[in-house]
Structure formats: structure tokens, C-alpha cells
Amino acid sequence: MLNAKKIEEIAKQVTDAIPPSVKNLANDFEEKTKTVLQRKLAQLDVVTREEFDVQTQVLIKTREKLAAMEAKIAELEAMMAAKES
Length: 85
Fold this sequence. Notes:
This protein is an all-alpha fold and 85 residues long. 82% of the residues lie in helices and 0% in strands. The chain has two domains: 1-46; 47-85. The chain has helices at 4-16, 23-43, 49-84. Helix 1 (4-16) packs antiparallel against helix 2 (23-43).
């Protein structure tokens, strides 16, 4: 996904490629391009890299807890099976 900085870089590259005689038009174009791109990207159903990284860490911790619980259940089941014998 493109972030705001990348959008600004693209808009700047477009502006720099325009001849000096139309700089005012280029400035308007840059601002409108940024606005349109940001609006369209905001409409997409995506998450930021930061949100993704946070959820990845949550998932890792959840998996660790699940593995610990599975091990504990297996231990308890083994104890119960030993008592039943």
C-alpha cells in the first residue's frame, strides 16, 4: 500500500517533470492529485503497516498462549489417565 509520503513523492516527481512555464498549473495538479489519491486510498479496505505489525504480534502471543494451554491440557489428561489405571 502507498503511504502519504510515497504519494507526495509521486506528486513531486510529476510536478518536477512539468516545464517552469506551467508551474502554477502543476502546483494545483499536485495538490489535487494528492487529494484524490488520499481519498481513494482511504476508501480501500486495507490496514496500515503499523496496524498489521501490531496484529501480527498479538497473533504470535495468542499462539504462544494456545500452545501452553494445549500442553497443560495434555499434562492434565495424562494425569487423569494415570489415576484411572
